[in-house]
Write a structure and sequence with these properties.
single chain, Ribonuclease iii, N-terminal Endonuclease Domain, Chain A, Double Stranded RNA Binding Domain
Length: 223
């Protein structure tokens, strides 16, 4: 018999087949959960946006956007999925199963979004939104200050602008590795620091963000 719910999931499906599909990765064959994930993603973004609007009346539009992004990102959804032990129930093909796909962040996040989409089809908008609020909503209380949700480059730029100083300068000083394993080393120069700081990552954007974060940490240590 197909299960109609999962331990810890505050929703019981009238159609257990929808839950089974939501937990089926495309590597396991059809019907899989990608279309349900698409539906669940839209529901998740709308529900969390509305919830933040109600619960954070003082927050500006940009802060609300950053808070929503933190709540709906793969890392957060995968954390929730692990708390629900979704990895024990996701249906994977032999290749994904062998490579540990049930632990992969993207697969867990997609499965959770697919469950939201399945609940929408199964019980309607109100029931599905209540599920999202019950599962993801508590994370709102643990969000860091809105200022800390800004990416490091934005925070560094705003800090320097507030002091009337020149913007930071980012220079790629090294690139190594094959195309699929490329590593970029970026140098970030800031007027307030005696010397530039460097960081290395798998893309130029990530390296710049890491360098900005290092510059912020250096500035905090010297202030």
């Amino acid at each position: 018999m197909r299960p109609a719910s999962l331990p810890g999931l505050p929703y019981t499906f009238d159609d257990p087949g929808l839950l089974e599909q939501a937990l089926t990765h495309r590597s396991c064959g059809n019907p899989h959960n990608e279309r349900l994930e698409f539906l669940g993603d839209a529901l998740l973004n709308f529900t969390i946006a509305a919830l933040l609007y109600r619960r954070r009346p003082e927050a500006a539009e940009g802060d609300l956007s950053r808070m929503r992004a933190r709540l709906v990102r793969d890392r957060t959804l995968a954390e929730i999925a692990r708390e629900l032990d979704l990895g024990d129930h996701v249906r994977l093909g032999p290749g994904e199963l062998k490579s540990g796909g049930y632990l992969r962040e993207s697969i867990l996040a997609d499965a959770l979004e697919a469950i939201f989409g399945a609940a929408l089809l199964d019980g309607g908008v109100v029931a599905a939104r209540e599920l999202v609020e019950a599962v993801v909503g508590p994370r709102i209380d643990t969000l860091p200050a809105a200022e800390l949700l800004k990416d490091p480059k934005t925070r560094l730029q705003e800090l320097l602008q507030g002091k009337g100083l020149a913007l930071p300068e980012y220079i790629v000083v090294d690139e190594q590795g094959a195309d699929h394993l490329r590593q970029f080393t970026v140098e970030c120069g800031v007027d307030l620091l005696d010397a530039p700081v460097q960081a290395t990552a798998g893309s130029r954007r990530k390296a710049e963000q890491a360098a900005a974060r290092a510059a912020l940490e250096r500035l905090e240590a010297t202030s």
